[in-house]
Amino acid sequence: MYLDSNATTRPSAAAVAAARRGMEEAWGNPSSVHRTGQAARRAMELARAQVATLIGAKPAEVVFTSGGTEANRLALEGVLQLATGRGQPAVLLTTPVEHAAVREPAAALERRGVAVRRLPVDGHGVLDPDDLAAAYGEAPEEAAVLASVHWANNETGVIQPIEALAAVAAAAAADRAATTRFHTDATQAVGKLPVDLRTGGPLDGVDLLTLSAHKLYAVKGSGALFVRRRVRLAGVASGGPQERGLRAGTENLAGILALGAAADESAAYLADPAASAGLAARRDRFEAAVRAAMPGAVVPAGGARFGRLANTANIAFPGLLAEAILLGLSERGVDASAGAACSSGSLEPSPVLLAMGLAEPLAHGSVRFSLSRHTTDAELDEAVAALAATVGRLGRLLPTG
């Protein structure tokens, strides 16, 4: 039973077939002018259009990358390096509940002289738009300011009020003479929530948006950064003219074509609201069954103001360690994770949960279960039984009293 889809999804048959076409048919170098190269170029541009359609963008606004991590780095460094390179002060506004793919580049920028402000979140991990507006207003008038706030949290599934945050960013950009931008890491949102980046639309204040292929049923090693036409970036990977000079290197055609196919499938999934509602109902039923079987279990983000991703359940077990629970679940055939997959194995509690004000004993015992579009109620029933057996055994070995 695979309940770790926020870490990675199983590639769909359509995505695998598209990747195979990229290796067997569109295998040319898309920068070559001959027929083989141009056939690869056409296939790549079709995939770019497919991704653009999914997020309501123009194909020219989609820059392919190796994944969400690279796209985040390109967004942050691309904006702020333009400022620091000409001696202009630079400010990064972010939160303590971001993924490491934003937290770590932010820390690196801070070491290089960028002023980084980590804005507080409420008990569910939500940033108040008024706090973002105040932070924009407090930035030095001559400074370039970039805000980076994820759309949906990978550990808890909590959704940020992204339209309100984007509106704040748009107002700040209109008020300030210096560069003023807004980036959202939408790695967990794209494919799960409707995204409409059309100019003049509700997300017009979003300048940059990150997505990752393997989070939406494509293959690893591919992703994209949406770059609105008004935005200038410094490239962070030099060595060639690919991707508008922002991301040098011959493109990963197999991964890109798989991403295009997955984007089409995601668009079809999102066109049926009942599909997402059904997934949320399964998630809620799973949480209720866990709490009924283990009354001490806590769902830290259960009452988030703007909701959670339909597929994500973060459940904390007081007095137990998540690593021990995960080992017990794995022995019983259930795959889950402790917070972010890239930090699993660490005995440190999740910084996301701590920033939400969760007590350390709960943060240490927090397990993330992330469903796929194909998870069944029968699988979840088996997972509840495996979890109850695991927690019961650990409770006898490590009594919480």
UniProtKB/TrEMBL annotation:
Record-annotated membrane-spanning stretches: none
The keyword Metal-binding is assigned to this record: yes
Enzyme Commission number(s) of this protein: 2.8.1.7
UniProt-recorded Gene Ontology molecular function terms: cysteine desulfurase activity; iron-sulfur cluster binding; metal ion binding
Keywords: Iron, Iron-sulfur, Metal-binding, Pyridoxal phosphate, Transferase
Domain (Aminotransferase class V) ranges: 1-381
Organism superkingdom: Bacteria
PROSITE patterns for this protein: AA_TRANSFER_CLASS_5
Catalysed reaction equations from the record: (sulfur carrier)-H + L-cysteine = (sulfur carrier)-SH + L-alanine
Entry-linked InterPro entries: Aminotrans_V_dom, Aminotrans_V_PyrdxlP_BS, Cysteine_dSase, PyrdxlP-dep_Trfase, PyrdxlP-dep_Trfase_major, PyrdxlP-dep_Trfase_small
SUPFAM superfamilies, alphabetized: PLP-dependent transferases
Keyword Iron-sulfur belongs to the record: yes
Cofactor list: pyridoxal 5'-phosphate
Alphabetized Pfam families for the sequence: Aminotran_5
Assigned protein family: Belongs to the class-V pyridoxal-phosphate-dependent aminotransferase family. NifS/IscS subfamily.
Protein name: cysteine desulfurase
Lineage summary: Bacteria, Pseudomonadati, Planctomycetota, Phycisphaerae, Phycisphaerales
